[in-house]
Amino acid sequence: MDCWSSSLDVDDEFEKLVFRMNPPRVTVDNASSRKATLITVDSSNKHGSLLEVVQVLIDLNLTIRRAYISSDGQWFMDVFHVIDQDGNKLSEGEVTERIQQSLGPRARSFRSLRSSVGVQAAAKHTTIELTGRDRPGLLSEIFAVLTNLKCNVVAAEVWTHNSRMASVVYITDDVSGLPIDDLDRLSKIKQLLRYVLKGDRDKRSANTVVSMGATHTERRLHQLMYADRDYDRNNVDSGPMSDRCKPLVAVENCADKGYTVVNLRCQDRPKLLFDTVCTLTDMQYVVFHATVIAEGPEAHQEYYIRHVDGYPISSEAERQRVIHCLEAAIRRRTSEGIRLELCGEDRVGLLSDVTRIFRENGLSVTRAEVTTRGSQAVNVFYVTDASGYAVKSETIEAVRSEIGQTILCVKDDMYSKSPPQESGRFSLGNLFRSRSEKFLCNLGLIRSSS
């Protein structure tokens, strides 16, 4: 064992000792507020503790309306005002019990989050992580390759931002239903997917990683996009929806206290706090104090931070980088386009067929959430046209007719107000189809029709 791994083992054992000597105290209070349940967490502190607490609450589908965070570096106390998905206070029972199990003294460590519902179990599937340049039809090509390689997609999440795409896809063998662990087969999957991602336009290197480890999907997507530098302002997406709901981020130093103060205002939405805390943690900043208020259409967050080295932000370049990274973290999950929900009997190749139909009709997927519940596929897609504009109602209806009116539903009223579409088949969709078919033919995945 080398010195580095030995040092990590010692640190980990020390953290476990501190945790046993000072177990976290969790209080669930339904009496102090008429509108929300108060969850108070007191515990010994380490870098990332705040993120792990927020992650547990978000994974339980709780909405955080207010949060008060305070830490002296060795100990922290967090108070969260939360409601359930229906806007109600939490009822005594399963949810409060799971909060105690995940955060209270019975939890082995905040670091042990496999009980969190957002963590995908490693033993059930193989995980594929993808990053690369986004383009119309990319998701269709990815799912087509996986289908032709006899892979069944059991779950996936796709984010796009600033012309970049990141995705975490969970696959099994389409015959056995078991994880794929054959090294030669995994190598071929990686090679072909990397070829798809690179295309002929990606100026950066596309990346494909295959693993059998447990993954928290949304946490990992933030890390992938941050590593891919989707916040880079030299590659800003200037599409028609790029300035919608732009967040306001201010970063200033508080010289007398030795902190950097981050103020953030934007339209409120689910999981906003998780997204911003993820970014600060990934950038190696420690949150010492924070106030979060999100009780109306707008959310306000204020953080007092220092870098893990103990110093506040020291340069204008670093200040700008924090601003750009927080803006990117907020906008990665901002849903552009019309929301389409697909619910129906799951089968191998379903995603390949559905995204092919999207591509043939000139639709571009900006975000996707793919889940399998028993034998049912429950998928959500956010789509725009190929130029990033709202999709015309006639196009949506044509797609629904092809996939199935009862299977694909529209969860957005905006599409019905779209201007009339010109008659005739989308020539752009046919272009995507012919390009994609030629591409897959070159890979040897389909036969040429000639």
UniProtKB/TrEMBL annotation:
PROSITE patterns: ACT (PS51671). GO terms for molecular function: amino acid binding. Signal peptide: none annotated. Residues 38-118, 127-204, 339-418 form the ACT domain. Keywords: Repeat. Gene3D superfamilies: 3.30.70.260. The keyword Repeat applies. Pfam families: ACR10_N, ACT. Binds amino acids. This is ACT domain-containing protein ACR.
